[in-house]
User: Fold this.
Amino acid sequence: MNPIISISDRPIGVGYSPYIIAELSANHNGKLETAIKIIEEAKKAGADAVKLQTYTADTITLNSNAEEFQIHGGLWNGKTLYELYQEAQMPWEWHKPLFEHARKLGITIFSSPFDNTAVDLLEDLDAPAYKIASFEAVDLPLIKYVASTGKPMIISTGMADAEEIQEAIEAAREGGCKELAILHCVSGYPAPAEDYNLRTIPDMIERFGTVTGLSDHTLDNTTAIASVVMGASIIEKHFTLDRNGGGPDDSFSLEPAELAALCRDSKTAWAALGKVDYGRKSSEQGNVKFRRSLYFIKDLKKGAIVCSEDFKSVRPGYGLLPKYSESIVGMRLNKDVSQFTPVSFDFLEDINNEH
Assistant:
């Protein structure tokens, strides 16, 4: 039986259209009004939810210039971890107005907490669900604390091997989580499509028995849409107003038109999967008459014995199916037929059955 979870009364699983999460992350770029606008655009694009990240530089790292706290290469080259997170953090006082605005708009809002104090803040706001970020998937005490809320949880699995994913799932279950989903993820920013190995998704579904989705860090929608075919029930994408906005995550985020396309096209892909069905589809009904069938190609008299030169397999499909070509050879006509008449058993007699 396929697992299902529910967030804000929206069921999520392979039997339902993909649940689309717009990840706001650090794309507010230090402006509350930008964060508000991102939520509005996510709603307009058709996303099911918008997700925040709840941390401060002090709750996620240490203010150190030591080598191991330095970032070398990539988007954030030259910064310390503390500097990066100080720039990227979502001020805690913004959370309440953002939650209130999202609820007013009718879009689900929740967050990724990075320590217990973040969970407490989000519980005060009655967050409907929680997301564990890939880098925190090994923080089993945090997972258990989040699970103790009893809310649905989504765990990203970037960098985690199968054993670590299993440990995270067990920690969530031990903590009291009843509704759990995991996301296949590659923690590269951006990540190349060929790193995603989407065939892992059906294996995850079978191996771990949870609702499974995709946290996608590629630069377009192709990987995300393809993941639906592999069984992804959730798609998470970073979302911004302007990819050239200069923020920490802007450059690998979707813009509004792209998010709208993802919402539309992923649902189309899901609808196209349908079910195993060899029957004639409703859109085909009117075209059956254009299939090939057998037609007489000359005038013939009653009593004539039909030979292969008397008929032909052509379009349209009002005559006998071509599979009867051999069967009607040697049969006798019980009435006159004219050229271009569809072949029918109604005016054919099998001379072998005569007594």
